[in-house]
Amino acid sequence: MIPVLEIDAEKRLGELAMSVQLSCRAEGVIAIFGRSGAGKTTLVNMLAGLVRPDRGRISIAGTTLFDSGNGIDLPPERRRFGYVFQEGRLFPHLTVRSNLLYGHRLAPHGERRIDLEQVVALLGLENLLRRRPHDLSGGEKQRVALGRALLANPRFLLMDEPLASLDQPRKEEILFFIEKLRDEFAVPIVYVSHAMAEVVRLADTLVLMSDGRVEATGSLEELSTRLDLRPLTGRYEAGAVLPATVLGHDDRYGLSELQVPGGTLAVPRVEEAPGEDLRLRIRARDVAISRDAPTDSSFLNVLPCRIAEIAADPGAQVDIRLEMGPSSLWARITRRSVDRLGLQQGQPVYALVKAVAIDGQSLGRRRVRQRT
Fold first, then answer.
1. In Å, how far from its chain's centre is CA 285?
2. Contact 100, 121 (CB under 8 A)
3. Per-residue DSSP letters for 251-311?
4. Torsion angle, alpha carbons of 87, 88, 94, 100, to 10
5. Among candidate residues 289, 287, 293, 305, the one with its CA nearest the CA of residue 353
6. DSSP state of 38
7. How would you class 30 by CB atoms within 10 Å of its CB: exposed for 0-12, middle for 13-18, buried for 19 or more?
8. By C-alpha distance, which of 39, 369, 36, 16 is closest to 7?
């Protein structure tokens, strides 16, 4: 049976009145997404035992962590969470090796299933073990922080905006390692972020927060495509998230071919071998529509679709949901184009997707869910 994370708790912090009701599968990556001030960090700190709710109940996999009615409030060390903060928060007087082993010493002897050698190899820390934190880059510090949290052999990893202080190349580096942690150790992760690109790459379950409340919980694929949630997910990042499988590579042109539900796509070459599973984000702003299949065009990706939904928002832009076999795409075009093409619900059309629009930030490694 898949464990469940359940939260029904309230907490007042200044003017923010937190009232959180959440129930979801406690596996993979659970992304807590929302604008600054939404209450994301407070929610994670309530999980970790660093903030005590005013009332309510928190449980995971049948273990009660907090229950105001029954006087239960497990201290942080008994909750068995590994916490990775925005900054590494490494011990400056200890070497990398000693920082890592500090996490290992926190784990009960009978539950040390993850050892130092595994973590060092996974995170590429071999050449850093004798250094001290002041000799490390930002990305290296976060890798060590990840390793220290993992070596505590936690039941959950909590990550509070761990990429916030890093530049884009270092973010890509750490995202890759977080994917490896998720896939190779199967430790559930609660990942806090206000960057939708990170969430789309990592998340299995998406929790949307606003003003101290959970507004929606569900699969990333479901919530990222709902029109009514655009004020929370961000209109600029709106689009579709699709499972994809690498079919092969075109070395001559530096392209790869991906199989997605309802068609195939050419994208800039990926490193994964044929047969590897990926997750692909196609932004609405990168999709155009044609009533007829173009015969002379630079678009490599021309996908037959049917118009399923046309957003009725006022303004110059219109979002259109396109059914493509069992999946959906979103296209963002001008209202003038809608009128000029005479687009209507149910109409067959072609979605045009630029290959170059699908960059490294649009692809992630897909996790295969456990069977219930």
1. 20
2. no
3. TTTTEEEEEETTEEEEEE--SSPTT-EEEEEEEGGGEEEESS--SS-S-SEEEEEEEEEE-
4. 170
5. 287
6. S
7. buried
8. 39
Collapsing DSSP to helix, strand or coil, 327 comes out as strand
Q: What is the DSSP letter of 194?
A: S
Residue 154 CB contacts under 8 Å (≥ 6 apart), including other chains: 80, 81, 82, 187
50-106 per-position pLDDT tens digit: 999 999 999 998 899 999 999 999 999 888 888 888 776 889 999 999 999 887 777
Residue pLDDT, tens place only, 143-174: 999 999 888 888 889 999 988 878 888 888 88
CB 278 within 8 A of CB 244: yes
Q: What are the tens digits of pLDDT across the range 176-192?
A: 888 888 888 888 899 99
Cβ distance 53 to 32 under 8 Å?
A: no
**Encoded tokens for 261:** 């539900």
Whether 52 contacts 128, CB under 8 Å = no
Asked if 126 contacts 77 with a C-beta cutoff of 8 angstroms, the reply is no
Q: pTM value?
A: 0.83
Q: ∠291-302-362 over CA atoms, to 5°?
A: 125
Rounded to whole angstroms, the maximal C-alpha distance in the chain is 71
- 284 touches 357 (CB < 8 A): no
CA atoms of 207 and 23, how far apart (whole Å): 10
Look at the chain and count its residues.
372
Given a contact cutoff of 8 angstroms between Cβ atoms, the answer to whether 309 and 294 are in contact is no
Which tokens hold the place of 284?
């609405």
Helix axis angle for 116-123 and 96-106, nearest 10°, is 130
- Edge-to-edge strand order for the sheet containing 363-365? 263-268, 255-260, 239-250, 277-283, 363-365
